[in-house]
Amino acid sequence: KEVLRIPRTLLISAIGVIDDARKCVTMDFKQRGTRVAWVRAKNPRDLPALAALHRTIHATLAAGRALACHDVSDGGALVAAAEMAIASGIGLIVNDALPESESAWDEQPGQYLLELAGWNHAGDLQSNLGDVADVIEFGLTQHLPKLTLAAASSQMTDISIDDLTKAWRGTLDW
Predict the structure, then answer these.
(1) How distant, in Å, are the alpha carbons of 20, 23, 40, 67 from that of 63?
(2) Where are the alpha helices (DSSP H) in 25-160?
């Protein structure tokens, strides 16, 4: 029998009391035809600014202005968008310049993708963030189950959610 050894890994968990689980905002897209915003800290090394960013995101979620929210980490914003599509089965059209941008793969702290309840909330979010972070129009959820990357210098690339799911799960198939 083969034994699979996993290297020692630091695991940090947090647990919190939730007054009403129905008010939790999860990472899966909720509706077709909604705008997705990318929030990026201007200085990911400024801890007080990051704290202000996180508090503003929390207030946005608590106010019901976001339908879904996912932190951007390993793989950057495009990977986070793929994970949101996989979790929901709802597709996304990513804005033109983003797939070709190095920042779309950036793994710096202080980044979120938010499916907004209305695009007018993006202006409120930017006002509340001030000079701490930028709010960038990332894309639009769509009725087709695919991730569409519209690049300015080439034709569009479509990746089905089934193919995204297979690729994501393939990393778990040891």
Answers:
(1) 14, 10, 20, 11
(2) 47-62, 76-88, 120-129
Q: In the chain, where do the E strands start and end?
A: 35-41, 66-71, 91-94, 111-116, 133-142, 146-149, 157-160
Phi/psi for 142 (5° steps) reads: -135, 165
Give the model confidence (pLDDT) of 49-95 as tens digits: 999 999 999 999 999 999 999 999 999 999 999 999 999 999 999 98
pTM of whole model > 0.90?
Answer: no
Nearest to 135 by CA among 33, 34, 11, 35: 35
> Do the beta carbons of residue 57 and residue 70 sit within 8 Å?
no
d(CA 128, CA 142): 28
79: three-class secondary structure by DSSP: helix
Write phi, then psi, for 81 (nearest 5 degrees). -65, -40
